[in-house]
Amino acid sequence: MITFDTVSKVYPDGTVAVDGLTLTAPNGKITTLVGPSGCGKTTSMRMINRLIEPSSGTIALDGVDTQSLDRVALRRKIGYVIQNAGLFPHRTVVDNVAALPRLLGGGKKETRSAAMELLERVGLDAKFARRYPWQLSGGQQQRVGVARALATDPPFLLMDEPFSAVDPIVRNQLQDEFLRLQADISKTIVMVTHDIDEALKLGDQVVVLREGGTLAQAATPAELLAAPNDAFVADFVGSARGYRALGFHNSDDRLTLNDEPTIAVGQPLSVLPGGHGRWVLVVDSARVPRGWVDTANVAGDQVREGDVNLSGTTARRGDPLRDLLNSALSSPSGRCVVTDESGVLLGTATDHDVIDAIRRARGVDGGQEHSDRGIGIPS
Ligand code: ADP
Ligand code: MG
């Protein structure tokens, strides 16, 4: 647990970067610090490992005042990842990761083999170990940066805009990988970002700072979206917050799926049961959804590859209701397609069913009429 108790930082030129900050970053969780540029995020974070000294107030790690720890002890306890990874350019990838353990007295062999394990853990192939940072993509460098920060197995991890220098697709991958890694290692993490989407996606707790370095709100993502403290937070969280909030309502237990008649490419429409609708779901031989077919417009007497409309998306059981809504709205049939973990069809629900589930999840009037229908996706 990292605690800030009325911490302030005034730079020598008189700039008040952080003003009376009090907050707790709980153990094993990710706390994201977010806010407009210059609101004191980096300053706050760097005061934790004393790269910057607070002007007043106390920062403690599991109740121990950081001022009572020497810097070597602090470095051992706190991993640090920065934007662009900040790797040593003249050292190989493996030596970058092993650098701090070596500095702290570890043997060459052990530190290297530990570094190799860490590289694998962050999803980097062993063939990159002997390369130099400039020979890696931005996303790969960032993985090395994370591995290096974890090299002393510190309980605390600080990350300053770790994924902001890579393109959006790679950033998304790195974020997903990072969440999987964290599920495994359960570090106590403080992450700075200016990107509210990233803060909401990665944070168990989101701390919004405002200019002048004061706390605007600290809350879970769902709370922040549902009940912003004031106009500043509401504005910062953005106009799409209703939609974003759906990302935090899980589809489990809230929706009963319907059986969906299916067809495969090469099959005639006559395999379909009577009374099927105009749009029919096409699956492959493993019952993995392929797309939708408009039965009113099938040219021959059997479904051909070219008949399959690929515009719909699928969602997996347990995905946020937002993803189910997206699947329903992107599907020409108006039905969302839900699969199990391996992509096999479980069933569908109409856009109305999904909206009703959303209303129930939010406790809004109007979903009640279905409450006797029994909720819960059959497993
Ligand atoms: P953020 O990371 O949220 O963008 P910073 O913590 O980097 O914000 O900076 C907070 C404020 O402190 C800004 O106004 C910035 O200009 C100022 N600042 C940062 N570092 C220094 C410094 N070394 N000297 C004077 N002012 C600084
Ligand atoms: Mg910053």
Task: Write structural notes for this entry.
The protein has 379 residues and is α/β, with parallel strands linked by helices. The chain folds into two domains: 2-248, P-loop containing nucleotide triphosphate hydrolases (Rossmann fold); 262-365, Roll (CBS-domain). The chain has helices spanning 41-48, 71-77, 93-103, 108-121, 138-149, 168-185, 196-202, 221-226, 231-237, 241-245, 321-330, 351-362; strands at 2-10, 16-25, 30-34, 56-61, 64-65, 78-82, 156-160, 188-193, 205-210, 214-219, 262-263, 279-283, 289-294, 308-309, 314-316, 335-339, 345-350. The chain has a six-stranded mixed β-sheet, sandwiched between helices. It has a four-stranded antiparallel β-sheet with strand order 2-1-4-5, covered by helices on one side. A four-stranded mixed β-sheet has the order 11-12-13-14, with no helix packed on it. Helix 4 crosses helix 5 (138-149) and helix 11 packs antiparallel against helix 12 (351-362). The longest helix has 18 residues, at 168-185. It is globular. Residues 367-379 have low confidence and may be disordered. It binds adenosine-5'-diphosphate (ADP) and magnesium ion. The site of adenosine-5'-diphosphate has 12 residues, from helix 1. This is ABC-type quaternary amine transporter. Belongs to the ABC transporter superfamily. Its EC number is 7.6.2.9.
Overall average pLDDT? 89
Low-confidence stretches: 367-379
Bound molecules: adenosine-5'-diphosphate, magnesium ion
Instruction: Quickly name the level 1 CATH class of the largest domain.
Output: Alpha Beta
Question: Could you spell the SSE succession in H and E letters?
Answer: EEEHEEHEHHHEHEHEEHHHEEEEEHEEH
Principal-axes shape call: globular
- CATH-level-4 superfamily name of the largest domain: P-loop containing nucleotide triphosphate hydrolases
- Main sheet strand line-up: 6-7-8-3-9-10
The profile of the biggest β sheet is: 6 strands, mixed
Enzyme class: translocase
Organism: Mycolicibacterium fluoranthenivorans
Keywords: ATP-binding, Nucleotide-binding, Transport
Pfam family, one: ABC_tran
